């Protein structure tokens, strides 16, 4: 849910950043943050003849890879830029040539027949150990590759783990956004350079009202065929020029707007103060970036991203303003829908977190057993298919975006296209529609939104029920607490439930009193004992069930352990057991809250620690550590 907002925020930042270096830093930082990577690198594709930024298409010749940026959270880097061939037996080269992401769990254990091998040159040079790797090409909407993102050593709880398919999907999507942002950035810089190159000539020729020379005609030709709207006004804001894209977008012809002010496009959606700040900025000679919500000739509203700069004469006096504008209406609509859904999901999360907090502070020991019946199933089901729907929606949006770009390319270039070009592009579009089942996606889109809305309503009802249920006494006051006595008291409560399942072995050390919230620590003890009972009860074995409880201490902390000889926990589940609502129990046997609440009580509130050791089929041991000196935060 936060991922959607993160993508939206990152997309906005990528679109807004005009500095190539800062854009690359933003890309690598975002990728590392989203995947918990310890290190990251970006290579770009360059032309071997010019050494300029280029793109790679299948079987391209004369293209190289240039190391552009690297970041490592563990060690300080000071690497010089290098240029290498696009070799298929290297990891980077393989990703470029195949155009596919590549996940490697262990860099030093790649099969010899994999078609690529890990080069440990940097590891040896830097003293760093590369383990897990995720390499993703940055492809634009025409499937051209601009570069490669490589992430190294995903870390969870301080340990390096393999990258998941979800990580691959996230970075693949982000790499697509990055490629578009880089292309736009390069296009913007090229246009800026072109405008800067001819700015003085354009200013002189507008002032003198003379026929444009050959170089100005080149600039005007580029502007006339530009995919973005270009408008030029005098110092007072009266329009002197608009390109054909302006007419295509707004419906106003050149004759209808020349001599008039841009306020003919005003929609009434912006305040007077907004326009005052706009004019104060450009009159001062500064460049202005922003968004306008304007109105077309037919009354239809639209959004555009605008950059306005000034054209000055030889005396450095402003003579004209030039505005470069891009229609972002469709982007806004998609972003708004995603934002609305994200807001709903965020509100649900807040309510769930509030309910969880109330359970930590208020819930009595007896209520945990009552809460356990079916809540996980009721919450996880709607949340599960809402998240599944959103994953599907993201894929749909990507396909719609590709189709829109194909239509845009067709529309922008149809005037200069031959009949054969039009037939070929139309064939591509129809083939894309059929291949990606666009008609089905359109129908399914509304069904997904409807199903997601119903799921959110279900979660809302469940959360409200949890809030009503959690109105119980406070258990959060800190005072002197006898851990041994707490365990004995808890065992008295659950002994009748456990006596038919397991034998209890108690080993109490002579431990000091600690400052703690006794009621909450008792809840943790209860959770761990009941989990042990369940693990033994569900194990198919003739062995006698055994639960061992042990306490001991050192100078700083007291410890208690709860171990069993039950079914154990699978290795792939160990990293998830403390997550809220995560459970391996069947419906009706658990909510997935018990260990999450225990983690919050021990780690977050008491500044202690809780760890687990488990072997499937042989049993599990939970070890809880609590500081002797405890100050309520």
Task: Give a short summary of the structure.
The protein is of the alpha+beta class and 633 residues long. The longest helix has 44 residues.
* DSSP, total strands: 19
Task: Give the overall average pLDDT.
Answer: 81
Low-confidence stretches: 362-377, 464-475
Briefly note the structural class of the backbone: alpha+beta
Helix count from the secondary structure assignment: 18
Percent range of helical residues: 40-55%
Based on CA inertia axes, which overall geometry fits?
A: elongated
Biggest sheet statistics = 7 strands, antiparallel
Beta-strand proportion:
15-25%
Q: N- to C-terminal separation?
A: 29 Å
How large, in whole angstroms, is the Cα Rg?
Answer: 32 Å
Structure description:
The chain has 633 residues and is of the alpha+beta class. The chain has helices spanning 2-16, 20-35, 91-98, 121-126, 165-208, 214-224, 244-250, 254-257, 272-283, 329-362, 365-371, 375-413, 419-435, 438-469, 483-498, 518-537, 571-574, 594-605; strands at 37-47, 63-72, 83-85, 102-104, 133-139, 145-156, 159-161, 229-234, 239-242, 288-295, 301-312, 318-327, 479-481, 502-507, 514-516, 545-553, 557-564, 609-615, 619-627. Helix 10 crosses helix 18 (594-605) and helix 12 (375-413) packs antiparallel against helix 13 (419-435). The relative contact order is 0.06.
């Amino acid at each position: 849910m936060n991922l959607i907002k993160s993508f939206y925020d990152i997309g906005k930042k990528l679109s807004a950043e005009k500095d190539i270096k800062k854009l690359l830093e933003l890309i690598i930082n975002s990728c590392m943050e989203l995947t918990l990577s310890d290190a990251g690198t970006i290579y770009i594709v360059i032309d071997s003849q010019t050494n300029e930024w280029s793109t790679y298409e299948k079987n391209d010749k004369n293209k190289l890879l240039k190391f552009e940026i690297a970041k490592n959270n563990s060690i300080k880097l000071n690497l010089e830029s290098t240029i290498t061939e696009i070799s298929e037996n290297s990891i980077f080269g393989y990703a470029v040539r195949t155009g596919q992401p590549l996940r490697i769990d262990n860099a030093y254990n790649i099969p010899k027949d994999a078609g690529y091998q890990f080069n440990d040159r940097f590891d040896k040079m830097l003293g760093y150990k590369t383990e897990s790797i995720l390499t993703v090409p940055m492809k634009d909407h025409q499937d051209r590759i601009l570069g490669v993102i490589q992430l190294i050593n995903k870390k969870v709880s301080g340990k390096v783990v393999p990258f998941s398919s979800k990580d691959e999907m996230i970075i693949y999507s982000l790499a697509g956004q990055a490629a578009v942002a880089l292309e736009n950035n390069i296009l913007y810089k090229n246009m800026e350079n072109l405008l800067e190159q001819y700015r003085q000539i354009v200013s002189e020729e507008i002032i003198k009202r003379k026929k444009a020379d050959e170089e100005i005609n080149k600039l005007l030709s580029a502007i006339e065929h530009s995919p973005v709207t270009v408008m030029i006004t005098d110092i007072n804001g009266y329009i002197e020029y608009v390109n054909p894209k302006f007419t295509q977008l707004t419906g106003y012809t050149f004759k209808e707007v020349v001599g008039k002010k841009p306020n003919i496009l005003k929609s009434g959606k912006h305040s007077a103060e907004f326009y005052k700040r706009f004019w104060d900025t450009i009159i001062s000679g500064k460049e202005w970036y922003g968004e306008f919500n304007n109105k077309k000739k037919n009354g239809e509203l639209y959004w555009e991203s605008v950059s306005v700069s000034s054209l000055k004469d030889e005396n450095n006096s402003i003579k004209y303003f030039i505005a470069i504008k891009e229609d972002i209406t469709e982007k806004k609509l998609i972003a708004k829908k995603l934002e609305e859904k994200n807001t709903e999901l965020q509100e649900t999360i807040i309510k769930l977190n509030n309910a969880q907090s109330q359970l930590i502070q208020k819930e009595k020991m007896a209520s945990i057993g009552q809460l356990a019946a079916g809540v996980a199933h009721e919450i996880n089901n709607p949340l599960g298919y809402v998240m599944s729907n959103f994953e599907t929606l993201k894929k749909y949006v990507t396909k719609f975006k590709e189709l829109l770009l194909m239509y845009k390319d067709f529309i922008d270039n149809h005037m200069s296209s031959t009949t054969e070009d039009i037939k070929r592009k139309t064939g591509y579009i129809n083939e894309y529609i059929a291949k990606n089942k666009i008609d089905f996606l359109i129908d399914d889109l509304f069904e997904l939104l409807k199903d997601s809305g119903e799921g959110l309503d279900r979660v809302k009802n469940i959360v409200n029920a949890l809030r009503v249920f959690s109105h119980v006494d406070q258990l959060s006051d800190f005072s002197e607490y006898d851990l041994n006595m707490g365990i004995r008291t808890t065992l008295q409560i659950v002994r009748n439930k456990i006596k038919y399942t397991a034998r209890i072995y108690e080993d109490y050390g002579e431990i000091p009193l600690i400052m703690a919230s006794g009621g909450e620590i008792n809840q943790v003890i209860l959770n761990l004992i009941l989990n042990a009972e369940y693990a033994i009860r569900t194990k198919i074995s003739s062995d006698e069930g055994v639960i061992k409880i042990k306490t001991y201490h050192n100078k700083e902390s007291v410890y208690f352990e709860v171990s069993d000889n039950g079914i154990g926990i699978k290795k792939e589940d160990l990293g998830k057991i403390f997550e809220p609502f995560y459970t391996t129990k069947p419906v009706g046997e658990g909510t997935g809250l018990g260990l999450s609440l225990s983690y919050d009580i021990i780690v977050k509130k008491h500044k202690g620690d809780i760890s687990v050791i488990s072997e499937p089929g042989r049993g599990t041991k939970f070890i809880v550590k609590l500081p002797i000196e405890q100050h309520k935060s």
